[in-house]
Amino acid sequence: MSEAVHVSDEALNQAADHLGDLLQARGWIMATAESCTGGWVAKGLTERPGSSAYVTAGLVTYSNAAKQAVLGVDAGTLAQHGAVSEPVVRQMVAGAVALTGADVAVAISGIAGPGGGSEDKPVGTVWFAWGAGQEQTEVALRHFAGDRDQVRRQSVLFALQSLAGYVQQLKTRA
């Protein structure tokens, strides 16, 4: 595991503003499906006046039961892979898009610590997905170092930057 990276509030605000600008230029709205970040991505995006033009919902589905009930994550997938896994974040994105009608969504599920980690999934393990539904979704696995706050800050920044890259890439192709 690498050394903890300090992510400032300013860096989070700049990343959220950049994503907001991209979404607004494209005329898209987005949703978040967050677990370990507890709504921090949605909070960052909605700090900006006028963000209702590009943010429709922030869904915090912290428990497995909430992931199933709100986002339609399959119980079998959770049982087989665990909440912190690629198949689950893919289903979280698809569920957020289906539930809200958003053009794109980002999903995050991880182990921020200090407890809850295992040998297979140590503290700092975070899965991300972003896209327009399960078929058009990109995923990434990251292992962040640091305490709970540092893991969460790094996760929020990575999510904002990844979705911005996705929107920019689609905008370039269009």
Give a description of the structure.
The protein contains 6 helices and 5 strands. It has helices at 9-26, 40-46, 64-71, 75-81, 86-100, 148-173, and strands at residues 30-34, 55-60, 104-110, 125-131, 137-143. The N and C termini lie far apart (38 Å). The mean pLDDT is 95.
Attribute tags:
globular; 174 residues; alpha/beta; 5-stranded mixed β-sheet
The side-by-side strand order for the widest beta sheet comes to 2-1-3-4-5
Query: What is the strand tally?
Result: 5
* C-alpha Rg (nearest Å): 15 Å
Order of helices and strands: HEHEHHHEEEH
Kindly name the structural category. Answer: alpha/beta
Strand content: 15-25%
Query: What is the chains' assembly state?
Result: single chain
Low-confidence stretches: none
The CA-CA distance between the termini, in Å, is 38 Å
The count of helical stretches stands at 6
User: Fraction of residues in helices?
Assistant: 40-55%
Average predicted local confidence, pLDDT: 95
Shape: globular
Give the biggest sheet. 5 strands, mixed
